[in-house]
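Model the whole thing, not chain by chain.
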Amino acid sequence: AQSVTQPDIHITVSEGASLELRCNYSYGATPYLFWYVQSPGQGLQLLLKYFSGDTLVQGIKGFEAEFKRSQSSFNLRKPSVHWSDAAEYFCAVGDSGGSNYKLTFGKGTLLTVNP
Amino acid sequence: GAGVSQTPSNKVTEKGKYVELRCDPISGHTALYWYRQSLGQGPEFLIYFQGTGAADDSGLPNDRFFAVRPEGSVSTLKIQRTERGDSAVYLCASSLGSGGYEQYFGPGTRLTVT
């Protein structure tokens, strides 16, 4: 079964600093990969996704992520964090085979942004 | 346009009671999903509908949980004989289709079983 590990439960960065959130997955083939953001009282919002092709994907709000097959990783990055980026971030894996509708999420990383 | 809506936003019930949670997907979305998010965890898949039928209910934890989507739009998640361990946020999502289409999530229903 597929699984997702987000090693960092909580990260604190200063506004304007760069950010990298880690995500490692376990899956037999190349999965579908997603990053979602969840703000308090809000639904999960998709930041970006990877299905195939260019391993560096651009998303909304200035985020990008890089798929590294050799490391089974899909880390999320942003060059300069804004206070409004404070939220919880979830990495998710989708089955690229028959059950391609089913997402498996990591436990999330809570991002705090200091002024 | 309108996103996925879920009602109620909060539900407090006593152990052993029956509850229904409602999801209104985005108009035209044929696929609908239910997830459960416990405290400190990511969402966990419960069930997937394509149209009116439950195409995959493998994530439902036991037979106290049941979901319907009779007209291929609104869905109701039903929990019988609630237990304290059922306390969680129940998330609904919808998408244009399956197989990699973006899933749009609602704000969730926070269920507390006392």
